[in-house]
Amino acid sequence: MPRVQFEPSGTLNCTNTITHLTCNCGSFEEDTAYRQCLVSLHNATKYFTALTLFDTDAYTSCVNREVAEWLEQQYAKKDGNKRGRSKLRDTPTATIGLAGTDHTASVYGTVVFDLTFFNEVTNSDDILVNIEASVIDSCIVVIIGLPDIRKQH
After folding, report:
1. What one-character-per-residue DSSP string does the chain give?
2. Out of 5-9, 33-37, 54-58, 89-93, which region has the weakest mean confidence (pLDDT)?
3. Which domain does 104 fall in, by range?
4. What is the pLDDT of residues 18-75, one digit of tens each?
5. Which end of the chain is more exposed for a tag (fewer CB within 10 A), N or C?
6. Which H or E element spans position 13?
7. Could you give the number of structural domains in the chain?
8. Whole-angstrom distance, CA of residue 4 vs CA of residue 6
């Protein structure tokens, strides 16, 4: 049975949802399976529900700015308005190549978070801990790259 959490606002967070979406942000893979996952700080009880792409062609994990800003708020609450483990910038600090394409994306810093997802093999939730992800402009909310996928095994 999948684990379900409720945020204080009453928002249902569930990790056993798989969705097929069409992304119109220049992706070559128009019909891709996204998994509904929960983004959080380590050992936190508040979650950000995010459609997540597990991408074995990506050599790094990434989040969009919406997730990065939410994580910044959580860091501030946890650390008493200190920056915590976030390194978010208003202007790009680097560029990264997008997996399997000639396209690049500007990087606006990095964030560290945990990701909870439903594992169909064990029929329970698994957690990828301390994922360090680049912050990019993307219609894909969270991309988990191959190195972080391999850490799970």
Report:
1. ---EEE-TT--EEES--EEEEE--SS-S--EEEEEEEEEE-TT-S--EEEEEEEETT-SSEEEEHHHHHHHHHHHHHHHTSS-TT-EE-SS--EEEEPTTSS-EEEE-EEEEEEEEEEETTTTEEEEEEEEEEEEE--SSSEEEEHHHHHHT-
2. 5-9
3. 4-151
4. 554 445 555 445 456 788 899 999 888 899 999 899 998 888 999 999 999 999 989 8
5. C
6. strand 12-14
7. 1
8. 7
